[in-house]
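1st attempt posting a full record on here, be nice pls
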Amino acid sequence: MLCKFAVQNDVVPKDYASFAKLPKFDKKEKIIFTPDQINTLWKHSDDKRVQVVLFMIYTGLRIGELAKLKKSDVHLDDGYIICGEKTEAGKNRIVPLPPAIPELSSFLRSWIQSSSHDTAVGKTVKHIREDMFYSALADLGMISAERTSAGFEFADNNHLTPHSCRHTFASMCASAGMKPEQLQKIIGHANYQTTADVYIHNDLDTLRQAMSILHK
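the predicted structure (as tokens):
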């Protein structure tokens, strides 16, 4: 991008970056939660830390999106939230709450009632990551980690992370038969194809129906 900008502004005569040969990138397989691990999480869902993990698993929210989720963007009566960050496709997107999992609405309601901030969870990304996500998983034996003054130290690099929730969500939706364009819109990726913007009510009905395939 920098070289293209330089060419456009006559700083250099050609795009030298086009001649660069990059080494092959070996894409690592993403770690996701297993059905047994998810069942274990549900057995401990009275713990707010675990609730946060389950919420991310069943909505596909990034940890930053959850931390920034405002109370005003939670519409429990209509069964959806508005969230997003990073890309244009991901900003201000509608994420319906799976109707077959009413516990998610209960989690949100209790968080909002106990939060003294304008955000639903009332915690920072660091707090959610360290004191909720990793803390809960370590207590449940799902990760091998020790808490240090700098945070958690892991026994290996092959462990569950907050982003594993997002990959788990995508995998569950795909396995359940959700249409790719619906999944891409709910999860907020930029590469889904659409010919025109739709009204929020029509959009919500379609996406809510798509989310109805998820069950505990």
